[in-house]
Amino acid sequence: MEPEDLLTSLKTAAHGRAVLRDSFVGMLAHASRADQHGALADQSALTSREQAILTHLAQGKGSKLIARELGIAGETVKVHVKHMLKKLHLRSRVEAPVWAVEQTRKG
């Protein structure tokens, strides 16, 4: 990793965001798709609140920070994440930001 990239990653992590290398994101996305057994996830099935939370998750934010920024309780964020994962046929909250990034890349 280049020193500039390392510094950027450290600053990102210091702000409470996850730092994932593109190659790792790709591997997670591939594994996620393989595990879905052909289930098609559709972001339009999400409520506006779930979409907002998905956007925050894709930015690497945790439940507490998302709750603070959206002005809701942390437990409420967790409930929305649970419903979102079910609708998107994902098994963990780690898969959600990976899925969101993949959708953005598809365009």
Describe this structure in words.
The protein has 6 helices and no strands. The chain has 107 residues and is mainly alpha-helical. It is globular and about 40 Å long.
> What's the helix-strand series?
HHHHHH
CA distance, first residue to last residue: 28 Å
Name the average pLDDT: 82
Stretches with pLDDT under 50, minimum 5 residues: none
Described by strand count, sense and barrel closure, the largest sheet is: none
Overall, the morphology is globular
Q: Strand content of the residues, in percent? A: under 5%
Counted by DSSP, the helix tally is 6
How many whole angstroms does the radius of gyration measure?
Answer: 14 Å
Residue share in helix: 55-70%
Question: What structural category characterises the helix and strand content?
Answer: mainly alpha
Counting DSSP E segments of at least 2 residues, the number of strands comes to: 0
Question: What would the keywords be for this entry?
Answer:
107 residues; 0% strand; mainly alpha
